[in-house]
Amino acid sequence: MNKKAKTWMGALALVLGSSVVTAAVVSNKPKQTPPEPAPMAAPAAVPSAYVDLTNAAESAVNSVVYISVTIQGKTQRVQVQDPFDDFFGDFFGFGQRRQQPQQREYRQPDRHGAGSGVIISQDGYIVTNNHVVGQADEINVKLNDGREFKGRIIGTDETTDLALVKIDAKDLPAIKIGNSDNLKLGQWVLAVGNPFNLTSTVTAGIVSAKARTLGANGVESFIQTDAAINAGNSGGALVDERGELVGINSMIYSQTGSYAGYGFAIPTTIMNKVVADLKVYGTVQRAILGVQGQDVDKYIDLEKAKGNTPELGTVKGVYVAKITDGSAAEEAGLEQGDVITKIDEKEVGKMSELQEQIAQHKPGDKVKITYLRNKKEKAVNVTLRNAQGTTKVMQEVDLDQMGVSMKPVSDEQKASFNLSYGLEISAIRRGKMMEAGATKGTIILEVNDRKMQTVEDWVEVVKAANQSKDRVLWIKAIKPSGRKDSFVIELNE
User: Are 321 and 294 in contact (CB under 8 A)?
Assistant: First the structure.
């Protein structure tokens, strides 16, 4: 017998040895009936290696909708010169008889797009991305049960890429909104949406990063996930294992344009504030601290590259590089070189986390800022301001009555319509303006003989009309087609 065989036989003997000895002892005693074998103990429960996401998926798909949009082609006036005008003039000996160029109208073709949305209330409020519906003239919403509704925009916010849409329906399957602050790295999440027009598609992954900044929007603190997100997922739901909404899927990071393992969602901590403002004001009440800065570790790396050695050690926070004049930060005494470490006792390790915390507040709110100066911790209460430098909420004047949100015309619109000023209706719902014939995209030029150059012009002229004897708005406008329009709104009705 070789060595390997002896070793194997020895191991077998160790396993069976006790049984062999027992059998030898029993053989010397009177024969007895062997006792009943004791019942075998149930095996210990083995923890599952997977999280059960079935209930979360079944619940979430009913709250996610398919949104299709139509963007109407604009009519533009173009100048056309007859190419044979000079030629025939010279040919018949008339000299150069160049005629005035003729103006012709050219209508661009309609464009179509699609995305997803999430039902957040039983009475028909739906959250989606601004880039899905922001330019839409018509919105169609299809529920998971097949019903379809016309949607209207309540408000949009380019800075966070969020939009609020409303449909006229009741008893809808609204999703339960969770707290994105409670998410942890490695936690399972589901992305629910309509990629490639495939409705009710669910993909699973984990949270791979929080407070991610991509430089795409003004306020960013994305949840990064490896749940597959593709074209059509925009505006869909990111939910946790309980089926609670923790984010709105917004974009992917890819060099090819297709999914490459990284998807990004807007956290509910930001979404809740934007939705609340759009419902009440039609615009977002954006609070501003008034600091420019960067993550401490990035600042240290840049300084070392310049040959400097900043004495910040292993501090985590936001290095203040500049204080905006007249800002809340200046009033509170913050200085260049300070390192902000907490907002209301919540740690902020990078600029995106600071943005996320400030974005949850309105102008006039007070927050506690904890910071380091010369390695000593300090704290100060700061009253946040808005972009105009005041602590007042910038209300959309008489939104319930007028039913519109305004924004200054773009440079492209100025060139297209030969304008130097104007306010575009960026969102419209039932109200005085819609009843008068205004539509989304209408450009308001003058109200009561006052040129509309800023939103504040609109605010002031409506306030003045409300306080006047006649209470009338005489409006000059341009339709989206480019044709001039005018209408009168009586505020007494």
Answer: yes
Q: What are the phi and psi torsion angles at 435 (to 5°)?
A: -65, -30
CB 377 within 8 A of CB 370: yes
Would you call 405 a catalytic residue per the annotation?
A: no
Closest CA to 462 of 449, 471, 470, 453: 471
Marked catalytic residue, from 63, 68, 208, 234: 234
C-alpha–C-alpha distance, residues 362 and 382, integer Å: 12
CB–CB of 382/367 below 8 Å?
yes
To the query of whether residue 234 is one of the catalytic residues in this protein, the response is yes
**CA angle 462–395–479, rounded 5-degree value:** 55
Rounded to whole angstroms, how far apart are CA atoms 373 and 316? 13
Please pick, among 68, 116, 131, 485, the residue that the annotation labels catalytic. 131
Choosing from 157, 161, 226, 295, the catalytic residue is: 161
Q: What is the largest CA-CA distance in the chain?
A: 144
- Mean pLDDT for the chain overall: 80
Looking at the DSSP bridge assignments, the partners of residue 77 are: 105
Place of tokens 């409303």: 166
Domains of the chain are: 63-90+103-167 (2.40.10.10), 180-280 (2.40.10.10), 291-383 (2.30.42.10), 399-490 (2.30.42.10)
Nearest CA among 340, 388, 346 for reference residue 363? 388
User: Which tens digit of pLDDT belongs to each residue from 410-445?
Assistant: 888 888 888 999 999 887 777 788 888 888 889 999
CA distance 428 to 406: 9
Residue 68 DSSP label: E
Closest CA to 63 of 5, 116, 4, 140: 116
Query: Please, what is the Cα angle at 272 between 233 and 148, to 5 degrees?
Result: 45
**Model pLDDT for residues 27-66, shown as the tens digit of each residue:** 334 455 555 555 555 555 444 456 789 999 999 999 999 9
Tokens of residue 362, six digits: 């309105």
Instruction: Return the closest-CA partner of residue 279 out of 139, 434, 165.
Output: 165
> By three-state DSSP, how is residue 143 classified?
coil
Residue 161 appears among annotated catalytic residues:
yes
